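Figure 6 in text form: structure in, sequence out.
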């Protein structure tokens, strides 16, 4: 499944819910479905700066693709970062760098977050793009 197909899959899952409260519960459910990150990986190196909650985002570079593992100590935030992992894991560095996350607005997530949560979401997206740039630089070095 490519990046756009993964986004469409998430949109379909959220389209079943008309109310924000139901979407909120869906986000939390997505977080619960994601595997726990190993405690050994919950280190400062993988911590996303700028989040009110603790968020860890660990990349893995496999050939020309980037995979992510993530976790958070807050249920809602874990759900949000899980959505990002579901969408961006397995994408190429170029796909991640070029992609604008308009799906967050389409899902109604961005507009319902507090200022602190919105800043945290921006930090997560920035970290994902930075990891993609690092993967691209590593690939170009051969």
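Output sequence:
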């Amino acid at each position: 499944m490519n990046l756009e197909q993964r986004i469409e899959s998430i949109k379909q899952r959220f389209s079943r819910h008309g109310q924000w409260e139901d979407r909120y519960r869906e986000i939390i459910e997505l977080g619960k479905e994601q595997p726990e990150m190993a405690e050994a990986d919950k280190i400062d190196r993988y911590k996303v700066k700028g989040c009110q909650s603790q968020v860890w985002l660990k990349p893995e570079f496999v050939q020309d693709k980037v995979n992510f593992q993530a976790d958070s100590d807050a249920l809602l935030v874990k759900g949000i970062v899980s959505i990002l992992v579901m969408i961006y894991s397995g994408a190429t560095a170029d796909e991640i760098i070029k992609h604008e996350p308009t799906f967050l607005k389409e899902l109604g997530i961005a507009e319902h977050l507090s200022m602190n949560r919105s800043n945290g979401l921006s930090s997560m997206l920035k970290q994902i793009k930075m990891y993609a740039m690092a993967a691209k630089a590593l690939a170009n070095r051969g």
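Caption detail: The chain has six helices and three strands.
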